[in-house]
Amino acid sequence: MSIDAKDCKEILQTVYQSNYGIADLFVKSPGRINLIGEHTDYNLGFVLPAAIDKAIYIAIGKRSDNEIHLTAADLNESFSISMNELVKSPLDWPNYIMGIVDQLLKGGHELTGFNAVITGDVPLGAGLSSSAAVECATVFALNELFGLGLSKLEMVKLCQRAENHFVGLQCGIMDMFASMFGKADSVIQLDCRSLDFHYSPFNQKGIKIVLLDTCVKHSLASTEYNVRRKECEEGVSFLNSKYPNVASLRDVSLEMLGELKNAVNENVYHRCKFIVEEIKRLQEACLNLEQNDLIAFGKKMYETHDGLSKLYQVSCEELDFLAEFAKGNPHVLGARMMGGGFGGCTINLVEESAVESFISEAAGAFQNEFNTNLKSYIVSIGNGTSVISID
Ligand code: GLA
Predict the structure, then answer these.
(1) Does the C-beta of 278 come closer than 6 Å to ligand 1?
(2) What pLDDT score does 220 carry?
(3) Which residues are catalytic?
(4) Predicted pLDDT at 136
């Protein structure tokens, strides 16, 4: 049985009350999808994410001392620590909250201790950025609770620093941006260099966004993600020595790529090739979207998958299988692996009338191939982080 938003609110209230008394505030922050533009954020390209109708919820209240007392209601785990001695925990989930506190303290903000309970219906480890949602919910709640006066963009940047420095994943800005700035029925066209963005309506009649979850737990923090980032930097550093204006892969043309080919090792070349192509592909895909040409848009999703699998090498056999399976179904406009990779979900744009049959056929084929149950989520695009009322 899966929990939904209503259950989440009830759980929050009950658990907070029995552990800590009356909460001061309740905040909700969603998970995210990304339609196209993968691994382009830290290469200062573009991304096209959206917040979804699955979220992390936090109840929070001030303490008079300097301690942080936390409970993860779904995991039935509690954690407490003094704000003056923040250290990484093997429990994992408290690190996203401590990382935020650490950054706020480093920024000179004045806080006292607090109690918090978190819960949510974002599937964990599925590549839907439950971690960014925890960070955004935490910073948003603390900003309100202590009147810190941070803007949404400042909070997003702070979440990224928390993840980079405390958690240790050198992630880009996409996940927290989408969670914080999400808008119902809209995708966010975000320029990760200038951080300019605009919303594009994505409310395609007759089309559903279906996520197929391999349940292969991706461990992004485990080196590979950071290795990809370093490989991209290596390509940039070579090109920068010849073209001083090249500060990121965003500045690299297809012609320049040619020069890279014989100068760096094959992996570095392939990583850079994928990113340069993906940045271009996303820009074309945005035009397709403006023209309402979802067929052309969907084709680009398949191309992205191909590049992520063969050039960037962040896919896995389960994701490749699902992308290939979708390609064989005329009612699926586009499909690809989504997020950091090595597991998690594929994102599929599916004709509404064929959603049920697609999901059950995919589940059957997946079971035959891997002897594993496939999970699926039909998601809609929702709003970003906000204070909620609990009634
Ligand atoms: C993870 C990271 C993001 C982004 C994606 C890949 O979700 O947190 O910053 O790099 O992978 O696009």
Answers:
(1) no
(2) 58
(3) 175
(4) 98
Can you give the pLDDT at residue 1? 42
Task: Specify the ligand 1 atom closest to the Cα of 38.
Answer: 12
Residues 318, 171 within the same domain:
no
Q: How far apart are CA 127 and CA 125, in angstroms?
A: 6
| CB of residue 113 inside a 6 A radius of ligand 1 | no
Taking the CA of residue 163 as reference, the ligand 1 atom at the shortest distance is 8
pLDDT score at 6: 77
Residue 309 CA neighbour count, 13 Å, CB half: 19
Confidence (pLDDT) at 44: 98
Within 13 A of 14's CA, how many CA atoms are on the CB side? Answer: 9
Give 1: exposed, middle or buried? Use CB within 10 Å, 0-12, 13-18, 19+. Answer: exposed
Whole-model pTM: value is: 0.96
219 with 350, same domain: the answer is: yes
Distance 112 CA to ligand 1 centre (A): 32
Verify that 166 and 289 share a domain, yes or no. Answer: no
Q: Is the CB of 339 under 6 A from ligand 1?
A: yes
What are the average pLDDT values for consecutive 10-residue runs of the chain, which has 391 residues?
73 95 96 98 98 97 98 96 96 97 98 97 92 98 98 98 94 98 98 97 91 85 86 98 97 94 96 98 96 96 98 96 98 97 96 98 98 97 94 74
Q: Is the CB of 175 under 6 A from ligand 1?
A: yes
Written as one letter, the residue type at 158 is L
Tell how far CA 239 is from the center of its chain.
Answer: 30
Pairing label, strands 197-201, 186-191: antiparallel
Task: State the total domains in the chain.
Answer: 2
Decide whether any atom of ligand 1 lies within 6 Å of the 342 Cβ.
Answer: no
* Residue-number span of the structural domain to which 257 is assigned: 207-379
For 148, counting Cβ atoms within 10 Å of its Cβ (0-12 exposed, 13-18 middle, 19+ buried), the class is middle
Measured by CA distance, the residue closest to atom 2 of ligand 1 is 171
CA of 258 to the centre of ligand 1 (A): 27
